[in-house]
Amino acid sequence: MISSLKHFDSEVGSKPGDWRNQNKNPQDWREQESPPLTWNEAPIGVGSGGSSGFDSDSAPSSITYQSSLSTRAPLSDFTEQGARPKSSGMTKLSSIEVHREESGLFPLRPAGGIHRNRDETSSSSLRPVHGPQRSTDLSEHSGGLSDAGYHSLVPSRSPTVSYNPSSSPSSYPRSPSTSFSTSSFDTSSTGGKTSSAVWNVRATRDTCPSSLSPRHPRSYRRSTTPLINKNKLIKKCQFDKLPDGLVVKIISYLTSVDIINISRTCKRLYFLSWEPDLWTSLTLTSANIETDRAIKSILEILSRNSGLSSVRSVCLNGSTRLTDRGLGVLARRAGLLRQLEVQYCPGVTNGGLLDLVSRCPHLVHLDITGCPMVTTVSLPVHPSKPRPSLALEYLDLSDCNGVDDTSVRLAVENCPQIQYLFLRRCSNLTDTSLKYVASYCLMLRELSISDCSRITDSGLAELAKLGPSLRYLSVAKCHQLTDTGVKQLVRHCYKLRYLNLRGCERISDLAVEAMSKSCSRLRSLDIGKCDVTDLGLRDLSVNCPNLKKLSVRGCEMVTDQGLINIAYYCRGLQQLNIQDVMGVTVEGYRNVKKYCRKCIIEHTNPGLG
């Protein structure tokens, strides 16, 4: 037997670096008997202390098995006919299957292992391996092994391989464990009777053995786990069956931030979320958002195809990080912009607004409430060209402390088509501002100058020039107004629908009487804290039967009789405010409920229920 093995070595040949030539023991390593490894014994690489037998310095590039001389069988029993020999003279299994056990070991079973004969040249036949196998410790022979891949060794606990020659590969039980492929190893067997074999190998995950050539793909396919059709195992979501048009309609009810978030979930929702129809309106109202960067990213995506985004309305209220740079991006990318709201954005200045209104000729709605750096809205004037004009119809400059008479003049000169102008709490305004408004804004319908304490009766006389076009007027807390200014105003502006005189303590029943006779179409009136009595309420109820909302909050001289007259003549009254009116009792409250059943009464008297 020794001579036959030496003859095999001479045929195959050994490299100078072969580990068989580096053995320091003068006795041939093949003549050394090694005890077999049974199931109760620990596998190679797992010590009793939990440390691995393969360290980083001595780990072999592939696992080799040797057996005692007395049990070695001819290589023809384990090889394929016609395979080309390798320098290492070792055979390989195609793959092995790994099954975990409670003990922490990994017993592996060969799944149709096929070996090649490296002494033949033809590849016409393949034979499975039969016969018992025995294993010896490889820690002494770590050098010169076949270079099937050192990096393919798994640095985990050593698996253990078992093989039953009497069973066919198809009869092995399939478990949900992972399929592994081996590196190269040397097989040895007994020459006679078969017995149980225990191998000790390290395996790589789903790696095709290097000894399997593309000419024999079946040997590799037999060793892998069957492919699973995911479409059959995973049920399709019912949402995927909805048509794109319906999905877009559902997405349209979400906010801009929510649409951006769902666009990151899947490919389909990404394309549907960026449909131009969903982005006619853009809303970013969080103070934590980098507004300038968000606007730039969104508009760049929307303008990739058309070159111009489809955004018509932008709401950036409360975006404290918004600056003129973000408005510049809007001006360049959203040329079709019609509505912009930037309430309480301290980073916005006159320069950013100038750039925006110059590049957005379709802008008709501009709300810049509470922007302290903004004083006016205007366009640059060229001496050789006619004065340009904006298409603005709605302008809100409330709470802009820098707005004064000059600011109002520039704004109304550049916005002759303005119809809604709100200048609340602009404390620097005087009657001169109202003169500019009446001169340039001939189409004005709504005006609010509440809390502008410097407005007098002269300013109301200027507003009277607007005539019947004025429908909404709020002069609340303009303490200098008297009955004279109100009489002159209502005489010309007889189509008023809403009038707010709250806090004008110098207004009395005379103004209410004149108002009720001239403005018979009045729908809403606020005369809270005015010097009004039941007499003024009786005139109001008789002349304005279509009144819907009335507030007499804080009118100390109003009693139940005034409320009874209002309730009897104004049956369509929907809202009544009698807070802090001490003259109203339960009787007046019940009469209002009797005649105006749908009326909502606001009060502070706990006795009214």
Structural write-up:
With 609 residues, the protein is α/β, with parallel strands linked by helices. Helix content is 25%, strand content 11%. It has helices spanning 2-12, 217-221, 230-233, 244-251, 256-262, 267-273, 291-302, 324-333, 350-359, 405-414, 431-440, 457-463, 483-492, 509-518, 534-543, 560-569, 586-595, and strands at 96-98, 106-110, 114-115, 127-128, 159-163, 179-182, 197-200, 203-205, 281-283, 313-315, 339-341, 365-367, 394-396, 420-422, 446-448, 472-474, 498-500, 524-526, 549-551, 575-577, 600-602. The chain has a 13-stranded parallel β-sheet with strand order 9-10-11-12-13-14-15-16-17-18-19-20-21, with no helix packed on it. A six-stranded mixed β-sheet has the order 7-5-2-1-6-8, with no helix packed on it. β20 (575-577), α17 and β21 form a beta-alpha-beta unit. The termini are far apart.
